[in-house]
Amino acid sequence: MSVFKTRKNKKYSYTPRFYKNDGEGNPFEIKHKFDDYRKTVGTKGGLKTRINNALSELNEPDKAANRRILIITVILLLVFLVIIDFDLSIFF
Predict the structure, then answer these.
(1) What's the CA gap between 73 and 75, in Å, rounded?
(2) Distance of alpha carbon 48 from alpha carbon 40, whole angstroms
(3) C-alpha distances in angstroms, 65 versus 37, 52, 74?
(4) To the nearest 10°, the Cα dihedral for 21, 27, 31, 34?
(5) Over its length of 92 residues, how does the chain's per-residue pLDDT go in tens digits?
(6) How many CB atoms are closer than 10 A to CB 50?
(7) Which of 52, 26, 30 is nearest to 39 (CA)?
(8) For a tag site, which of 13, 21, 68, 79 has the least CB within 10 Å?
(9) Cα(55)–Cα(45) distance, rounded to whole angstroms?
(10) Comparing C-alpha atoms, which of 42, 68, 64 is closest to residue 53?
(11) 3-state DSSP: the chain helix, strand, coil percent, rounded to 5?
(12) Own/partner long-range contacts of 33-41 (Cβ < 8 Å, ≥24 apart)
């Protein structure tokens, strides 16, 4: 028993009871569900490549989502104006 020696951690070879190994990776791997569709996850390269990938991913607009957000915002604004008894006749 030496003062300067550190203990080694025990290693276990645990396999889950109900895990079917179909050859599809590790069952303990934690992965986000959208990682397969993103360019910035798990890429190797220099700083410039990573920054360019991040900017290209950021600049891809989703027109349907933007339209949906705009419609929801307008509806909520009109509901708010009705609740506070704002005179809506100036718009018509």
Answers:
(1) 5
(2) 12
(3) 18, 24, 14
(4) 30
(5) 567 788 887 877 776 676 666 656 666 677 777 777 776 676 677 888 878 877 877 776 778 888 999 999 999 998 998 888 888 777 67
(6) 14
(7) 52
(8) 13
(9) 15
(10) 42
(11) 45, 0, 55
(12) none
Q: What is the pTM of this model?
A: 0.38
SS3 81: helix
State how far Cα 42 lies from the chain centre. 14
CA distance to 15, 24, 25, 31, 43, per residue, from 28 (Å): 10, 11, 9, 9, 21
Residue labelled with tokens 């705009």: 70
